[in-house]
Amino acid sequence: MSHVLDNMIWQAITTGNRDIATVQGEAGFYHPDIAPFAAMKERTPANLDRLYAMLPPGRKVALSYFDPINPDTAKWQVLHQMDCCQMVYEQPVDSFTTAGSELIMPLDENHIPQMLE
């Protein structure tokens, strides 16, 4: 891993968000009332098995990795797969466009209640 955001969920649940996550060894997940995200220190079949063993039956989680994950279909069911982009602020830009750019809006203090909800 060359950058802290290369495995952002793992970094979050093992540092500043440790108190709102369950982590055992090299696998973990957010408490279900916080977020659906789960992660592994390294994406290996053994860690995917560890994560599976930790999760309560029927718990749905979201995993985020750069490379495709080929889970054991006897244990895992992929409900939805999507491409995402990771944005890192390094310098100001004049514009940023995506297929859904019209949905992007600046957030301010008026959005705090909705974000907390």
Description:
The chain has 117 residues and is an alpha+beta fold. Helices cover 18% and strands 9% of the residues. It has 3 helices and 3 strands. The protein has a 3-stranded antiparallel β-sheet. A hairpin with a 2-residue loop joins β1 and β2. The termini are far apart. The model has no long low-confidence stretch (mean pLDDT 88).
How much is the radius of gyration in Å?
16 Å
**In percent terms, what proportion of residues is strand?**
5-15%
What is the number of beta strands?
3
Oligomer: single chain
Helix content: 10-25%
Structural class: alpha+beta
- Note the run of SSEs as H and E: HEEEHH
From the spread of the alpha carbons, the general shape counts as globular
What's the story with the biggest beta sheet?
3 strands, antiparallel
Terminal-residue CA separation: 33 Å
Task: Give the count of helical stretches.
Answer: 3
Low-confidence stretches: none
Rounded mean pLDDT is: 88
Biggest sheet strand line-up: 1-2-3
